[in-house]
Amino acid sequence: MAGPTFNRRRALLGGAALLGAPLVAGRPAEAAGPDPIPIRGRIANPSHRGQRVYTGLYFAGPHNRNSIPLFTRHPLNFDRLDWRSEADIRFSLQHLVDLGLNTVKLSYFGHLGDSDDFAPTWLFSQRRWPHEGGSGNYTEAEQIARVRQLFDIAHGMGLLVAPLIEVTPNNKFFDYFPHALDELLFRAGWLLKHFGDAPNYLRVFDRQGKARHVLWQIEAIHLGDVDPVAFAAGFDTAAQLLRERTGHAVGWGLDVTPLPPYGPHTGPEPELLRDTASVVMINPFNITSQGPGAFEPQPDVTEAERMEYASAITQRWVGSGIPYVAPLLPGYDPTPEVFPDLTAYGFNADWLSQQRELAVRNGNAGVSFDTLNGFTEGYNTYPTEEDGDTITVWARESVAAHRRFWTSI
User: Fold this and answer.
1) How does strand 203-205 pair with strand 211-217?
2) Would you say 251 and 278 are in contact if contact means Cβ atoms under 8 Å apart?
3) Each residue of 170-183: pLDDT tens digit?
4) Would 202 disulfide with which of 160, 169, 270, 403, CB 3.0-4.6 Å?
């Protein structure tokens, strides 16, 4: 991850848990067959109706050489991840299928040049990929065709897709929402207009049992003073305007964690978001960014303190009554060459076990790996030179454990 876009998010990333901790008998996992009853937060697409959401943030397309080029984890089969052919796309997506996931949470930094400079990968790039040997810009039709190709291939592999709207210097959600909606409406409207008709665009049920097209929003907070009532109402206002412009009902999946660590957490209040029509799930990006108390320099924050903080955030939002998709993070590794002020943590058996336990017991609407292929800071689930298949096996077993745990719920 790279540049100013990540100055806030990178500080958020922190670690938690490993393999082997037995799950205490209690709740079961998810039924295999379709659920005919619309349940808030469950998938509404006919192909996956009634299922919980099993997903991970996915950086799609060839690696962006304008982004930070230093990988702290190096994927095996690196030559298969450059997206020069449909076979490479299938190879990449097959990893999601093999983990037991049903949804691609597609990172979207914008399509008017934002992704050219800040995104780790180039799917939405306006500038022609250097991998193709050309120059100049894609037409909008060419950009759309690239993304449609991903939707189509994912559909053939049984995967649903929905975008996560990232923040960039041109889209500072945490500064403008809910006072100004134009930038959010432009980006969300473009996505819905061009991809909302895809049969595998993720739709989930809202609290009235109606299907809504999911848009994930990163950093759904405000950095200044904001009325939490107006903040919650802003999502319904935006959803209504998008419905009028695109014909699609929007269901928001929100990352509600404070950024940076020990930063302000203003705006999202559980009881207010619970009563909105358009918020369909809470899905934090990372809940291990800090300890529970006063500010401490990152090197002084222990893994136990990070997990204590993660547990507190989890309980706050699980108790909200809003469907909760629990995040799973194998660890965080900035290395001194990438972000020298941050500390690595996780990637050990105890951390992975605690992460899995927390997510399995509390992810009433599913689980999310953030991210699946973020090699620059180590938060990925692909087999790598450094970890072999340890994280991959942990991820696959975590999904299986979650399904077992929630089967009869």
Assistant:
1) antiparallel
2) yes
3) 999 999 999 999 99
4) 160
CA angle, residues 310, 316, 320, in degrees to nearest 5: 140
Tell me 334's DSSP state.
Answer: -
Cross-strand pairs, 171: 168
Q: Tell me the one-letter amino acid at 262.
A: Y
Round to whole Å and give the CA distance between 41 and 406: 14
For 240-297, the pLDDT digits (tens) are 999 999 999 999 999 998 777 888 779 999 999 999 999 999 999 999 989 987 788 8
Within 8 A by CB and 6+ apart from 225, the residues are 266
**Alpha-helix residue ranges (DSSP H) falling in 171-302:** 173-176, 182-195, 228-246, 270-274
Cα separation, 8 vs 247, in Å, equals 34
CB 75 within 8 A of CB 373: yes
Q: Give the residue carrying structure tokens 């009881």.
A: 271
- Residue 339's CB is within 10 A of a number of other CB atoms, namely 24
Q: What does the H/E/C string look like for 267-309?
A: CCCHHHHHCCCCEEEECCCCCCCCCCCCCCCHHHCCHHHHHHH
Per DSSP, 390 falls in state H
Q: The pTM is what?
A: 0.91
Q: Which of 24, 131, 15, 31 is nearest to 409 (CA)?
A: 31
Assigned token pair, 256: 């509600």
Buried b (16+ CB within 10 A) or exposed e, 156-167: eeebbbbbbbbb
Distances (CA, A) of 366 to 42, 57, 76, 166, 183: 9, 14, 28, 21, 29
Query: Distance (Å, rounded) from C-alpha 62 to C-alpha 82?
Result: 5
As a 3-state breakdown, the chain gives helix, strand, coil percent values, each rounded to 5, of 35, 15, 45
Please tell me whether the peptide bond between 178 and the residue prior to it is cis, using omega within 30 degrees of 0: yes
Give the pLDDT confidence of 359-379 residue by residue, as tens digits: 999 999 999 998 899 999 999
Q: Which residues contact 227 (CB under 8 A, 6 or more apart)?
A: none
Surface-to-core class of residue 39, CB atoms within 10 Å of its CB (0-12 exposed, 13-18 middle, 19+ buried):
middle
